[in-house]
Amino acid sequence: MKGQGLRLYAILYLVFLYAPIALLPIFAFNDATIISFPLRGFTTEWFAALADLPTLHLALKNSLIIAVSSSVLATSLGIFAARASTRYEFPGKGGLMGLIMLPLVLPEVIVAMSLLMVLLGIGVNLAIWTVILGHTLICTPFAIAILSAAFQSLDKSLEEAAYDLGESKLSTFRLITLPLVMPGIISSLLISFTISLDEFIIAFFLAGSEPTLPVYIYSQLRFPKQIPAIMALGTILVALSVLLLTIAEYFRRRGLKKTGAKDTGGFL
Amino acid sequence: MNNVPQAAAPAPIASRPTMIEFRDVHKYYGDYHALRGINATIKAGEFFSLLGPSGCGKTTLLRTIAGFEDISSGAVLIDGKHMVDVPANVRPTNMVFQSYAIFPHLTVEQNVGFGLRREGGTPAEKARRVEEALEMVGLKGFGKRAAHALSGGQRQRVALARALILKPKVLLLDEPLSALDKKMREQMQVELIRLQRQVGITFILVTHDQEEALVMSDRIAVMFEGQIAQLADPETLYRRPNSRQVANFIGVMNFLPAKVLTEAAGRIAIDVQGLGQTEIDATQAPGAVTGGEISVGFRPETLTMLYEGQTTTERETPGTIEEVVYYGDMTYYDVRLDGVDSPVRISMRNVFGRPVLDIGTRTRVAWSAGALVLFR
């Protein structure tokens, strides 16, 4: 029948995409240290084991500090750049914006390597803040892309109207611009947070003796007996990601409803 | 806006004090010369329109009053004060934007009361002023609604209330009715006129709709390519346009080539193609005609088609109907007068008992020399 081939293709595609991720919770609850079928039985032992891994806790703490800091930094920088690129005309704007967006397509390993060379060259000790620096660098283009869309859809006459009604430029920004681009800001924060949280290469190069979560997970894969616990950790991370995405989508839709704008598609 | 008490007849425009003055205003965007020497005065309490095609500079001129555009040279004065270095947020003007610019994240009353944030007064006092403003535009009881849940006409009214609540000296309206449908637009035109009479504030309207300008304005400045082509009251503008460009922009105007024969004592003798020789008053040549080849214009409704057996005390010219367009209340005929190169348009009211004539019918057209306008 017509369309059957396409349907089969779509199903296979989804299986390929999600089957490996579906395996995570299956083996996380499997009562065996070896990752293979048949399953042995149900256990929550691996989740409990996570509580006894101090290095994991350190890595998680580092990752959270880095992800929160770099998402806030990238979003703040993104607000300025997005505002400038959507509202003002200045010489060299095209080239400048292009250069700012370039890290989006630069191989990360190149960025990480050159950053490492520069940092070592000027005698900086590698620490959490050097990773924050690197992550801000790669998150900013994403933040700008998201925020530019938010600023673009903002009618310029809204700001003029507030100014016309006696507000200063600053209070206009606070009372009108900021609330209306808030969904974009939240999106930018969440996306940057997610990017930073699972970023490996830059974290691996610049972290020094402070491992992040992905770096820790990679290091643990060398020990077979740790693998079920990693599976449990992965399960938690997948659940968290879905939760985060749902929250982001909820805020996006609420923002749309509040401003009466048309839904032009989002994450979900 | 119902039950508004009718204000007393306002003083004639010319005797009122000046509210806005443009002195040789120029505006450049890079190499583009957007405003080319604007000189005009707008009187206090006047309903003034800036009319012209898109790109003629009318919105730019409006925005120089609001303070959203700097001028390159010249001066803009509001109520006798130079507006150089006076930013938009302290000028005594408020604006109704083309998109209405209703703050979508606020309620109707938060929108209307937005300008009061910086003013003194108790919250109760402010709430009362918001309620008054809403009542003035016919939105009593709408205060708690979310702004995005309003219809186009309601948004328009919120924008008006929000701009008028600060009692500005001048209200600027940037194509405020262009987004409304025809019925709504006509209703809002009447309401805007009534509102303007009620509050007595100077209204300056930007529009590309000549009918809207004619209906609403005390005076109209017709603009082309950054210059004011003619500034006059609606009737003068319609009956005595000073150029073919203005005549074409406002309503429909027929043109026929003509020659000036003699000019003496305020009377001009002319020879018009198809119509023959006639004499008109010098005031019918507002564009300063000086002899030679000219053209003569006349509106479709100044011509009358004569039916069989009908006679006229005016002049009459024979012709043939070439096109018939039926509008219900009106019928437009394109008639080629004998000895004329192109047909002229005649509008006839479809009064009871008057048949619509067919293409090809021979007819006689009555016209009067007093309805003619001379153009260079």
TrEMBL record, chain A:
Keywords: Cell membrane, Membrane, Transmembrane, Transmembrane helix, Transport. It is found in: Cell membrane. One of its GO terms (biological process) is transmembrane transport. Signal peptide: none annotated. One of its GO terms (cellular component) is plasma membrane. The chain crosses the membrane at residues 7-29, 96-120, 126-154, 175-207, 227-248. Belongs to the binding-protein-dependent transport system permease family. CysTW subfamily. PANTHER family: PUTRESCINE TRANSPORT SYSTEM PERMEASE PROTEIN POTI (PTHR43848). This is ABC transporter permease subunit. It comes from Frigidibacter albus.
